[in-house]
Amino acid sequence: MENEIEQIEKIAWQIFQNKLQFTFKRELTAEEKKGITDEESYEYYRQEATKLYEKKQRAVNNKKYPIIDVPASGKRTWMGGAYCLCFVYSKHSGNFVLRGYVKEVDEYLKKNYTHYFYNKSLWHQGFNRDIWGFWKENVGLFKPSKRDKEPKIVVRPYTCSYRVKNEMSEEELEAKTFKFKRLPKRWIPEFDKL
What is the pLDDT of residues 61-81, one digit of tens each? Predict the structure, then answer.
């Protein structure tokens, strides 16, 4: 329990410095740090750190999926520099996790697998962002949107985007649209129709 509180405090301090873009020229003494962390407004950073710590713990405790480490190429690139945990739900290979940098993980997935959808959890400086995707370029997973007043996750072909231009009738599009309250944690036969 003490270790958990210590970890949360470290994460909260990191979030505090990142959000306010503070860097100290020297290490603060315990009294100086206590003066900052005892403020009522600092509680926000503790709450954010607790959420982040719990999310990391769930990822660590979720050992039911095999983990594949994707080696880094060693080449510096502008894109693909974020560390990534990619949860893959595959038709032929079951569920598994890929660990590595985004660019290498994408290349590994495209080279070795077909018929899958994934959740890429990108991590950088203690913050994360989730990206859902499908193995086909012309199929998208759309999160619930207040603007569209759609309370469910929608899986459907793109109708018109920079990637692909689909000339589909409304009936065809409706037949290939699937709505989920939560995405399934496995491949389902309906995805073969897309």
Answer: 666 778 888 887 767 666 656
Together in a domain, 107 and 166? yes
- In the chain, how long is the greatest CA-to-CA distance? 68
- Please check whether residues 72 and 128 belong to one and the same domain: yes
Amino acid at 62: N
Residue among 112, 119, 120, 115 nearest 135 (CA): 115
Please give the Cα distance from 174 to 63 (Å, whole number).
37
**Separation CA 90–CA 134 (nearest Å):** 10
CB 119 within 8 A of CB 86: yes
* pLDDT tens digits along 83-134: 788 889 888 888 888 988 888 888 899 998 888 888 888 877 777 788 888 8
What is the domain range of residue 44?
Answer: 2-61
Contact 140, 118 (CB under 8 A): no
Confirm if 96 and 90 have CB atoms less than 8 A apart: yes
Q: What six digits make up the tokens of 95?
A: 């569920």
The three-state secondary structure class of 141 is strand
- The reply to whether 78 and 56 lie within a common domain is no
Q: Which of 61, 80, 103 is the last residue of a domain?
A: 61
Residue of 89, 155, 86, 154 lying closest to 116 (CA atoms)? 89
Query: Is-contact 82 100, C-beta < 8 A?
Result: no
Q: What is the pTM of this model?
A: 0.59
